[in-house]
Amino acid sequence: MLERLKTRYPNACIANEPIAAKPLLWFWMEEEKRYFGIDPGELTPEETLLLKTLFPKFQENTAGTLSKASKWYDYLFLPDADAPVRDGVYRITQFALAKAGPNVSGVQEAIKNMFVPDVLVIVTNQVEGIVIEEKSETIATEDDLTASIRAFEGDFYTPVLLYLGEFQEVASLKHHFPFERRLFEFAKSRRKTSALFTVHSLLPLYLLSNLPESEKGLLFQSLHGLFEEDREMGQTIKRYLENFANASLTAKQLFIHRNSLQYRIEKFEEKTGLNLKHFTDAIFAYFACLETFGG
After folding, report:
1. pTM score, two decimals?
2. Does domain 211-293 have CATH number 1.10.10.2840?
3. CA atoms 82, 84, 86, 92: torsion sign
4. Continuous segment of H or E residues that includes residue 60
5. How far is the C-alpha of 222 from the C-alpha of 206, rounded, in Å?
6. Alpha-carbon distance 75 to 92, whole Å?
7. How many Cα atoms sit within 13 Å of 286 on the Cβ side?
8. What positions does the domain PucR C-terminal helix-turn-helix occupy (predicted)?
9. Residues of the chain with CATH 3.30.70.270
10. What is the CATH code for 83-206?
11. CATH 1.10.10.2840 spans which residues of the chain?
């Protein structure tokens, strides 16, 4: 029955629990033990009556009960929708689970608890959603969210990826959000394990991915050859640069003596002619590392 309904209503959503993303009419499939959500606008009055007769256990998420979430959803995803608020500074955090969880409302609550102030969590499908957060004096830091991601994975036994958006005036948010969605799609295509992404963490790899392969080959040919010969050196340089040239932290993370780290850095600089204390040299070396080893 479920497959036949999906064929008849291809835009419908299947979930273990009704999803509070947009107003939908949710029918409980007793045999499959799942809900089938249909936009009421896709149903004729006769179809609605027939479905309610066939599936007496149903839930109707009306526009009134989901007014706030629905208005934000429409504003961000539909072309001509009005802003849900007049003014204010907000950011959008996107999240994606590696697989559908058994408890949508539990996932929704766990995501909400990652943030310090009260936020609006909108689940857009079985594995993805967004968090609407107004700027305040107390906001979750990247370190806070990274710790929350680890706790989430421990509780739900599935990786979760977050993209932490930039705070924007509400009037600018609609135009900025599509770019943040593209960045998150790019991130998901490169990473399947739990992680927190931001524009500054993704931008170098994103820019590299948009360079023609022929140009990347010309730019990083010499360093790529060096890293292929000595991958340990390349991975050391990458970690060192990601740690803002903090030698003590890098040595600790790599489980090596600081003198060994210094030797690898000096060996790299001697072979390449680059000086990692110079910003432009360090940027070039880091891009070469990303091209060779990925993000």
Report:
1. 0.72
2. yes
3. negative
4. strand 58-60
5. 22
6. 13
7. 21
8. 235-289
9. 83-206
10. 3.30.70.270
11. 211-293
| Integer Cα distance of 72 and 82 in angstroms | 9
Give the torsion sign (CA, 103, 108, 111, 113): negative
Q: How far apart are the first and last CA of the chain?
A: 44
pLDDT in tens, 27-48: 888 888 888 888 888 888 788 8
81: phi > 0 → left, psi -120 to 50 → alpha, else beta; which? beta
Convert the pLDDT of each residue in 233-261 to its tens digit.
Answer: 999 999 999 999 999 999 999 999 999 99
Beta bridge partners of 91: 133
Measured torsion, CA atoms of residues 234, 191, 161, 167, in degrees rounded to the nearest 10: 60
> Residue with structure tokens 């969605």?
181
Distance CA 165, CA 181 (A): 9
3-state secondary structure of 17: coil
